[in-house]
Each structure stands twice: as C-alpha cells, then as structure tokens.
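CHAIN AND CONFORMATION:
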Amino acid sequence: MVTTKEISNKLPNFSPPLLEEMEAVASLKELKAGESLMHRGMCINAIPIVVSGSLKIMREDDDGKEAFLYFLTPGETCVVSLTCCVSNKTSSVKAVAEEDTEVLLVPVGKLGEWMSRYPSWKVFIFQSYQKRFEDMLEAVDSLAFKKMDERLWRLLKKKADLKEKRYVYSTHQELGDELSTSREVVTRLLKKLEGMGKIRTHRNRIEII
C-alpha cells in the first residue's frame, strides 16, 4: 500500500485532503521491465499514475505492429486512459514498463468527482493533457518529417535521459519494434550513428557519447 508521503513526494502539488483520499482508494501495482500495464482493446477501470520507473506508450495496429509515442515518468499519467474513462471506450494504446516500475491506480469513478472537489487534481489533469498533446505532436513530426536515423537517435536519447545515464540496454529488435522497422535497419543505422561519433555499441548496450 502506497502512503500519503510517497504520493506527495511524486505529486507535490496535490492538496493534503486529496492525498489522504488517494491513499485510501488507490492501489499500487508493481511491474517488471517489459511487463504490460495495458494493451489495445483493454477495458480501462483505473487511472494510472507513475510513482517510480517509467512506462513506454506504444500505438499498435491490427497486425501487431507497434510505434513508440512517448514515455511516462514519475508523477505523470496517461491521458489516453483518461479519455477512455470519460468516453467509456477500450484502450487504443499499449503501455509497457521500460524498467521496473510502480504505478498508482486510481478508480475511474474518482476522475470526475475529484475534478469538482480538488483544484489541484483539476490542474494536474489539464497539465497532463497539455504535456501529452505536445508529446503527440513531437511523435507525429518525427514520423512525418524525420529520417529513420534521426528518429533512432531521438529514441536513444530519450531512453538514456529517463535514467540520467549514458547507456541504453534495449536490443536491436526492441528498437526496431518501437520504430516500426526491422532489426537489420536498426543495426545498420546504429553503425551509421557510431561512425558519426554519437554512440558506441557494446555487447548488450549502447553508449551515448
């Protein structure tokens, strides 16, 4: 069970009454790296807020192909799940733990109730929509206007920045899946980036220079 103190450390702008109610009704879910929190077509019955670690949000088509959209880090929520809650629709995205992650699950019935009762919750929801909208625009720009090597470099930087470290431990296949391309293309582009002096490739890891 997550405590009020733990929640307030990640969500410092929440009011004390909201934190106390959140502790009473929310549950904590622990995910191992690579474990899914939600998938396309899944019914959403809770609002996820990342407490520790990070979630990778992916778009998935009918053939199982995936495309990376954005990461959720501590103190952030997935607005797609919020939209599904409001419209009573199933999930249109996949959420996967990028690393070992803890997620606070708030019952969907609290979304509207807290909007009217707690200004800090309303601000949090509106800011979440704004941030995710910007992330979506960045993802669309990347898909529409950037070459694959630029998209790969952007993804590697984001993965490294998540942990504030120089190393990325994703496999070539995982990177290919996230970019909707093949493992062979990723391998070729990593060699190109290495030749440009942006990365060094090691066994089972990629170093950002």
Q: What stands out?
A: The mean pLDDT is 88. The radius of gyration is 18 Å.
